[in-house]
Amino acid sequence: MTMPATALRAETRDGLFGMVPAALAGPRAAIAVPAVLVALGAALDWAATTAPASMPVWLPFDFSWFAWLGTVLPVWWYLRGLAVLAPAARPGLWRRLGFLAGMATIWVVLQTRYLYLAEHEFFLNRIQHLVLHHLGPFLVALGTAGGAIRAGMPAPLARAVMHRWIRRALAPLRQPLVAALLFVGLVAFWLIPAVHFRAMIGHRLFWIMNWTMVLDGLLFWCQVLDPRPCPPAGLGFGTRAAMAVGVIFPQIAIGALIVFARHDIYPYYNYCGRFFPSIGPLYDQLVGGMVIWIPPSMMSVVALLLVLSGLRRAEDAAPRPADPRAARMAALSARWTGRPGEGP
């Protein structure tokens, strides 16, 4: 059957980020493609084990199955879900780009040679955690990818992810105060000098540290940056704004404690050998503390602006009041806010 010209043009405009070939969107591909990805992961694992120095810059020299499957499977499910969903249900182009960029940044700091740099300079380690805990999850959350990923998953797995037991288990972590405390508390916990030292020298604990950063960042930012009103979103816009602002000050305090430290509080980087020998411990700590201090605060401000923008869109989409007096108040408000209002 020939596709109508208008539909073909629409698919062409949607491009790579809106569809995958029809054959790959079918039910067989839901199993076949993950199997291929697992086989490719096994090949990368073998190559990284036998010849790590020969791996390209963009591939892992220290292969992690959790990092591999945790990045490629969600991306595959997302692309397949975009093909399965109706066009009206798909996220916009910029949201799709945000999701893919977020997953790419997580991959870069976890499974490329940057990982080696993060193990040999404190400030580079802080940039890694800035990406894992803030930038990557922030971009993924902007992508509003949950619906597309569930649509692209095999049906039994999608049902298991949405099972009431899973939601009940996550419910305490999604409470605003708990989520905010966990968001700041995990950063502070892994920066305790004794804990940080153990995490950096222990391979398993090192990966636990990194993945708790990713998962906690996703838990926090997906709530704060949810563009929907409440309901169906779990939190109101005011609560989300308070969460974005509330985490700024503890992170500033953590960064300041490190910036103004007068002695080397992270000796691990002296023992392992710094990648830049000309950078001394105190200067390394100063730059690392600034990474903790400034960029996360700026991202919280951006998040606040996005929450306020979502609030404005939700108010504009709400039904206009039928009461003439309320309509006049809405028109008066529009003159001050710039939002379109109804006249009296």
The proportion of residues forming helix, as a percent range, comes to over 70%
Largest sheet: number of strands, sense, barrel closure:
none
Low-confidence stretches: 1-13
The radius of gyration over CA amounts to 23 Å
Word description of this protein:
This protein has 17 helices and no strands. It is mostly helical and 344 residues long. The chain has one domain. The longest helix has 37 residues, at 281-317. It is globular, with a radius of gyration of 23 Å. The chain starts with a helix and ends in a 7-residue tail after the last helix.
List the helices and strands and how they pair.
Blueprint: H1 5-14, H2 27-50, H3 65-84, H4 93-111, H5 114-118, H6 122-142, H7 146-152, H8 155-161, H9 164-170, H10 176-191, H11 193-201, H12 203-224, H13 237-246, H14 248-259, H15 268-272, H16 281-317, H17 324-337
Question: Which labels suit this protein?
Answer:
mainly alpha; disordered N terminus; single chain
Tell me briefly what this model is.
This protein is mostly helical. It has helices spanning 5-14, 27-50, 65-84, 93-111, 114-118, 122-142, 146-152, 155-161, 164-170, 176-191, 193-201, 203-224, 237-246, 248-259, 268-272, 281-317, 324-337.
